[in-house]
Amino acid sequence: MLVFINELQEHMETIWRILGRKLEGDISPEEEQTLNEWINESTTNKQVYFQLNELWNHKQDQANNSQAIAAYDKLINRIKFAEVSKSQSRVQRISFRVNQFVKYAAIIIFVLSFGYLTNYYINSETTSNQFCTISVPKGNKSEVILPDGSKIWLNNNSKLTYPKKFNSDERIVELSGEAYFEIVHNAKAPFTVQTSDLKVKVLGTKFNVSAYPNDKFIETTLISGKVTVQPNDNPEIENLLQPGESLTFDKVSNEASKHKVDTDFYTYWMKGEFVFKDEKFEVLAKRIERIYNVEITFDDESLKNKTYTGDFKVDDNIYTILEIFKRSTSIPIEYYTDRNKISIRRK
Amino acid sequence: MDNSQHIELLCKKISQNSDQQAFKELYLAYFDRLYKFAFSILHSAEFAEEAVNDVFLNIWQKRNSLKNIQSLTNYLFISTRNTSVNYLSKFRKERNTTLDDVLVRFEIDELTPETAFFNAEVRSEIEQAINQLPPKTKLVFQMAKIEGLKYKEIAQILDISVNTIDNHIATAIKKLSHTLKKFRNEEIDFILFQLFTKTNKKTLK
């Protein structure tokens, strides 16, 4: 009896395999034979076979196309970006040759007409500037070195415009998005970051500006040195910042407020790591949102106030970070991702 | 697949004329499948999307050599697998992660269109049965059923043996058959009866 059951089981395993092969469309004549015998054994078998066939060939609805189209747009941006940076380096090479030519020509002209041209040259210098624009697409970062040697780290989804050559008495750049600045000191030429609603003026220093068009606030954080922040509408107001201070400017109410900050976060993306201590989950979530370009929601208000100490690396995947949070909390949490939206729930 | 000729035509347009419209069509034709596959490995919508885009960025940049690719579907799936697994090893800081080390997570699509044979109740039972299968079995089943991929192709994509695929599909078929047995459909009985009598009549003639 036991032998019989075993055999029957083995036989059924073979039938399942053959059924699979049949559906795939790669079946030998012998297998076909075995299958037919099984099908004809009972009406139940016939039913099952018929329904399996139906199910296998049952076409599922194509998932909605909108995600694919949105993703395609991102891909096109990446392709454009890759192609532009290729051609930009070509343009730079050409302009380098032109520059060489201009240099020699300039020396000759200079020697020929030293006295006459001196005045004219100084006047024309301020007007003949060309601008460069660097755009960093979503999810990327970029490092820029300005003509004066200052270094700028551009964050995710940001744009920086600067002249190819700075004027001798001022250095102005335009920023949309977030950037960390390390400005070479030059007392004769103050450095200005122009954003949609305010100006940040410095002589030489390290600071971070976050001015995304979609954000309600513009945030300026000073790491070292000295900066002043002036609203575009009220340039007479000069907010002076001390190292470790951050100024939050409300674009709607035009109100500015200063507060002490932990500067570690503002340099995270150039250092590649962010260290935090007793930070609320809610605050951390805001930062994760900025770093990873995601949207985080909490289903349970009490989760927001849980505090964490630790660090994460900029190169860490968002998934890794969420897993770490999940494993290190006393309250069990669960997260769900839907495109760039992440919702955190109590388990 | 019956649209393989169309895909071939798209590839030709892309590689010879850098045809962006054809590229878009190709992308949209494959996105869902590759995205799901990448998601099953990465469990993150954002990174799954990025992995698929990596694969297609590469396709676009190497479009001139597109004609050297034997089976585009296989190539795309394998590239997606490699890219996704590389992502994983990167953020796990391990070298040589293989698909075996990865927890595959996979949900099947809803069986949407109403058919004569599967009403809402049956459909939900079937979905449940499929979703209760082990993740890799589910993935293999989906690839065979929805993509119409051959066992040999799936074996290459997932880097497992054809025999293992056989086992996975058999497991799925077994589970489904047990579910389907519960739903005896009189309509099918009737169709079967007709089929049966027809073939009998034929043989009688």
Please outline what is shown here.
Chain A is α+β, with helices and mostly antiparallel strands.
Structure description:
The complex is a heterodimer of chains A (347) and B (205). Chain A is an alpha+beta fold. Chain A has 3 domains: 2-126, no CATH class; 133-266, Jelly Rolls, CATH 2.60.120.1440; 272-346, Phage tail protein beta-alpha-beta fold (3-Layer(bab) Sandwich). Chain A is built from 9 helices and 18 strands. In chain A, strand 6 and strand 7 (198-202) form a beta hairpin. By secondary structure, chain B is an all-alpha fold. Chain B is globular and about 55 Å long. At the A-B interface, helix 1, helix 3, helix 4 and helix 9 of A face helix 2, helix 3, helix 4, helix 8 and helix 9 of B.
Topology:
The complex is a heterodimer of chains A (347) and B (205).
Chain A: H1 2-24, H2 29-41, H3 43-57, H4 66-112, H5 114-125, E1 131-136, E2 142-145, E3 151-154, E4 158-163, E5 171-182, E6 191-194, E7 198-202, E8 206-211, E9 217-224, E10 227-231, E11 239-241, E12 245-250, E13 256-260, H6 268-271, E14 273-280, H7 281-292, E15 295-298, H8 301-304, E16 307-313, H9 318-328, E17 333-338, E18 341-346
Parallel strand pairs in A: 5-6, 15-18
Antiparallel strand pairs in A: 1-4, 2-3, 3-5, 4-5, 5-8, 6-7, 7-10, 8-9, 9-12, 10-11, 12-13, 14-16, 17-18
Helix pairs in contact in A: 1-2, 2-3
Chain B: H1 4-17, H2 20-42, H3 45-61, H4 72-92, H5 120-131, H6 135-145, H7 151-158, H8 162-182, H9 186-204
Task: Give keywords.
heterodimer, A: 347 residues, alpha+beta, Jelly Rolls, Phage tail protein beta-alpha-beta fold, 3 domains, 13-stranded mixed β-sheet, three-stranded mixed β-sheet, 9 helices, 18 strands, 30% strand, elongated, B: 205 residues, mainly alpha, 0% strand, globular
